[in-house]
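[Solved] Which block belongs to which protein?

Original post:
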Amino acid sequence: MIFVYIWVSLSIVSILFFYILWINGYMIKSRKTSILFVGSFRQKKGCKIKFQSCNGYIKKVIKIRKSHSYEFTFNSNITNGYVTAEIHDLSKKILLQLDKNNPESSVNLDKKCRYYLVLRFENADGEIEITWN
């Protein structure tokens, strides 16, 4: 019986730990396939990714320090396929969408709300860098 209590307690603590990491932007939800994928998502105001034959998506919480208009920039060197970067609000509404044809845009973000960066890949090869200020 004591093992059941220990197991339940550890499960609850683990779930809370991963949830705190997620809402603070330290964890990434990823559902993708690729031959090569190397990325740096730990930068406070951006991310860099190199990939080959990538399909799927990546979702990450963006931590906003203060409320104002943020300028997002999508620098890419995509040799094959298609990649988009989207900013979603909590209700999954797309606030901003960037790709190689639309590399810059701005959006007003509130520090009290949670926002997500969603990267979508379709048979893509190359590298991208997304920055915001």
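(Second protein starts here: sequence line, then its structure tokens.)
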Amino acid sequence: MSNSDIATEHWLKARFYRQVKALLGLAWPATLSRIGVIFLGTVDTLMIGHYSTQQLAYLNLGSNTIVLLVLVATIGLLIGTLIKTADAYGREDYEGAGQVWNRALPYAFGVGIISLIVCLPGNWIFTNVGLDAEVSYEGGLVMMVLGFGLPSYIIYVHSIFFLEGIEKPKVGMYMMLGANLVNVFLNYILIYGLYGLPEMGAVGSAWASTIGRVLLAIAIVIYMLRATSLEKYKLVFKWNPQWRMWAHQRELGYAASISLGAEVSAFAALSIFAGWMGTLELAAWGIVMNVLTLGFMVAAGMGVAASVRVGISKSREDYSDAGLAGWTAVLLGGIGLTIVALILYFLSVEITQFYTNDTEVIYFTAPLLVFMGVVLFFDGEQAILASSLRGFGESWVPMGLQIVAYWGVMIPLSYYLSIPYGRGAIGLLEAVLVAGLVSCALQGFYFKYLTSGSKLHT
């Protein structure tokens, strides 16, 4: 073995172990933080579900339609905070990293105000799509109340992206744990009307979520401005009128927002296809999507870690290390997703029973969950690759590749397999699997192209 080969092997081992340690240190709190977000909605659903089926319908209408799309789109708009913070942090430009938070804070609040405005006419929107007057009113009221919490929540997300960019992801994890505890308490007293408060049902649950989001924003801003460990970043409330100076930061957000919105809307189309098949298929698909979302948080957490580590290496112009960071994240994410798939394989019936006591639904859904473990593997891996590309500073290419996979491949293929070809609900999952494979291949080749051919940095 030549001296060059020995040097390369030594570099790979040393850097690989360093990346594994750094990625895991970032990924596990980021994953738990995002699982905490899912649990907020799950707790709302479970508590309202035990309170009243009718109120559950109002809650689902108000929270899982426009509010969900707005949340996904706005979170995407702020992804530039994570990428540009990691870039400045990697160059040890701590004041520059602080400027990423400072200059985008008014932007985040403005996005939140626009989100609120979109959520105000819920009753009018639901009425004009043909829903019953009572359902439209109650669902619209839930949507409006949730809208009041969006400006606060978007400031919280913006701040958490900054902290993750400087490799401090545990703050968000601890705050989300506290938020879940507060949410359970507030749900209990506002849904049922305890301590002299009126019984509000679904609207009470919406107020619990809104109050929790306001408290999250207050807590995170106090931490940002008072933590001694953040003093070197010089975080302040200051409007920066030099809009063009951070155009790339916003551009990353525009592309991510379109990409996430396209993916969410594509899966919404699959829910419509499931509804065309019948009540049983729709009920089963709802359970499958809920489990898929929860399992996907493993990939979401690793995606955050990949964005940060790739971004840090890219800022140092160490493209080989950026490539190693991305591929190591894919490897570690694959291990985590495999564990989730094994859990689904062995516990599919038990997991389904958590959602329903209907034996017909259990019998129909359990095999779907087994296959969904394989689907989740590739859907999660493509998300990690997309995050790695964004960490590298790419914005529009990963967006375009994901739209090709999910709109160009998944939607038409899912319709053909499930309805004309008669595969039913399993056909929907088969289409998601193919889309995930296509997205993995396209993004993997592009990431390899970007990070190959550069010298090793020692």
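Accepted answer:
You had them paired correctly. Confirming on the second one: The CA atoms of residues 212 and 386 lie 31 Å apart.
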